[in-house]
Amino acid sequence: MKIWYTSKVFLFANPMNLLQKEKIVIETRAVKHRDVNKIKRNTWITLGIIGLVTIACFSYLLIWLFGKESDKALPAPPAATATPAASGGTTGKTEVVKPSNAAASGNVGNGTSSNGTADKPSDSNVNGQAPGNKPAANSSGGTSTNRSSVKLTFVGDVMFAGNVEQLLIKNGWDYPYRYMKEYLEKADITVANLETPISSRGTAQSKDYIYRSSPEALPALKDAGIDLVNTANNHILDYGTDALLDTMDALDKVDIKRVGTGRNIEEAYKPVIMERNGIKIAFLGFSRNAPDAGWYAGKQKPGVAETYSTKLPLEAIANAREVADLVVVIAHWGIERQDVAAKEQTELAHKYIDQGADLVVASHPHVLQGFEQYNGKWIAYSLGNFIFTTNAEPMTWETMVLDAECTKDRKCNLQMLPVLTKGAQPVRMPEAEGLKLFERMSRISFNAVVANDGKITAGPTKQPISDIVAPAAPAKPPAADKPADKKTGETKPVQPAKPTTQQPAQTPKPNTAPGTTKPSQSGAVNP
To answer: In whole angstroms, what is the distance from residue 443 CA to residue 462 CA?
Structure first.
């Protein structure tokens, strides 16, 4: 009774306590309900945002995909119909010359790496066999039209011997490229003429000028951006076959591709195929300057790919035309210190293009020679010296970096950068000197004009005008006269003395191949 009475008295004595508790309970429930609703609302907002972002991304993806399909569906612009005379050689043209056994064989000397490397599977040495499918031909006989392009850069003669080697040892092997590297490495493929064996052994040949360069020079050459060299020239065998074999091995070791020489005739005439931007470019190297026929590659004999005869070079071009989009011929020819191309140079270049070459770039004269456009294809007759010994003749200091922007439909646009090379370190010419060089290049070109920005375009047909002044013939001394004839009073000229019976010592004639120039005079740049 006491407990019941106490609780009842408490309830009646504190009626607000119960109400406050109920109010607290109700407020607590309301807060919880509001929090739950807030969480639900935030969740829905988050899901909504995620959904909108997802829809937007998906819509953008669909638009991009449909845009790609739309681009693919657009028909390619029709290719311009070219006549056989203007096409510069098509795949149909290559049937004129049948591949010989030497040019069609797939045997290559051991040790070459120009068949391709693991990191560059698209670069290979092929011999009449395509590494992939042959490019589709259009109705005009050329390759199918493709607007993608490839940038090729070319420089002239390069060597690292003699005084050049001393400069490089003193200043570093990268000394020649410190002002040129930015122009060499930005191209898709950069090419030079390597006018020296790379070796530390061999037997010096009997000739006026001989060169041999250290293998230590090659890593800097590679690092400067040089991807491929032509070795078909009149110095590559200066130290015999052993040094030539060392040269090929040294180039392969640093992954610089090479053309123009080989362990046998098959390898010497074999093109190097390099693919860039979906375009296959075939490079070939030939020389029309060799001390004697013993330098020519044979069936089992290392040597150079000569072009005194046109049979093997034209067959090699025909084979390359079948497997590549572009065919580039690198030639070594001409007469030392002559700035206008000789007849033999133009005849060979035209034959190369008629057979299927798309671009011909050459060297050897040690001075610049002009350009020519033949059947829509460009010829650069000589790029001069790039890294070479310096002499007193200023014209041998002038050179260039030649850029060729080429498309898959076999069209190339050329532009030259004027360069001054002295002391084994080529530099860009000052603007005023560069403009003068552009004007001179226009004068010594056949039908081409070099604009103020260095771009080469077709010009009026004309004969080049040489800037080299021939030395004047020495004046004849006045003849000594006899005293006047006593009878007539006329003077009589002195009669030439009769030759003595003793014959003068004969100097041996150099063993030169047909068409080669005479040996250089003392102090002249060697061809």
So the answer is: 9
